[in-house]
Structure formats: C-alpha cells, structure tokens
C-alpha cells in the first residue's frame, strides 16, 4: 500500500468500541493508533481487541488534541457525524493521513486542526469502530494494489456467465 496512515479516537466513551477500532487498525495496517482522552482504556477495550494490537502497533494516549503531533506531510482528516456537514461521496485519502474519529462529534479544537472534516454517507450515525473500519477499508481500496472489480456484460458485478443468480 502506498503511503501510511494512523487512526485515533477523541473522547473515548465506550472502551469496547475503542478496542474494536484498534483491532481493525492493526488488521488494516495502520502505522500507529492513538486515543485523545482523559479516561483510561479499561479491560473492556482489551477484551474487544483480540489481536492484542498494542503489542504489534505503536499506541499513543494523549490528554488533549494539542498534544497530537503529526508526521511530516501528514494531513489530519476528521470523521464526523455532524448533520450540518454534507455527506461525502468519497473520503480524501492523502498518502500520509491521520484519521480522527469522535463518538459524539469532534471538539472545536480538533476541527480547527483538521485539514478536512468528512461526514460518512448514511442515514444513521455509526459507532466509531464501524466508521473507522469503513474509512480504513476505503483507503485500502484507493491506495492498495488491487485490480479493478470485474463487471459482467450486464453491467452488474457478478452477473456474468457462471454467476449465481438470485431468485425473486
């Protein structure tokens, strides 16, 4: 995969979501993960992180956004649930990206630090672990080395010869 990325949470409210996000960060190849929170990440976070990502992935705990240092050329991309933002049909994925998710919305200080703030499309807010996994998967598709998805002659993926047809 080209470039690098990191992902973090601001204001951890549910440790299980944090553990699941950090496990996904490990699975998708994050350079590091972080939490901006004065709350401790409890044993519940570790229960959700069955890959023990903290053994394989650098992890930083910061008391405030002001302590977040970005690597050279890295852009901070905020992922929001704010209905005032337009849903983005795509997520900007710079080669060097640090993604920041907050379960109840980014703080004003975090928004000011972001190069871009994106609202994921959808009708309902997602928990931070699910939102983060979608962002990392999308990044993998954009920056990974994957062939384009095959499209059958009907124009619908998987509807060519030999594809299983769904009965109505």
Explain how this protein is built.
The protein has 168 residues and is α/β, with parallel strands linked by helices. Strands 3-2-1-5-4-6 form a 6-stranded parallel β-sheet. Helix 1 links the parallel strand 1 (4-10) and strand 2. The chain has helices spanning 15-28, 43-48, 108-113, 128-143; strands at 4-10, 32-36, 59-62, 75-80, 96-101, 116-119.
Strand order within the widest beta sheet: 3-2-1-5-4-6
> What radius of gyration results from the CA coordinates?
18 Å
Shape: globular
Number of strands: 6
List the helices and strands and how they pair.
Elements: E1 4-10, H1 15-28, E2 32-36, H2 43-48, E3 59-62, E4 75-80, E5 96-101, H3 108-113, E6 116-119, H4 128-143
Parallel strand pairs: 1-2, 1-5, 2-3, 4-5, 4-6
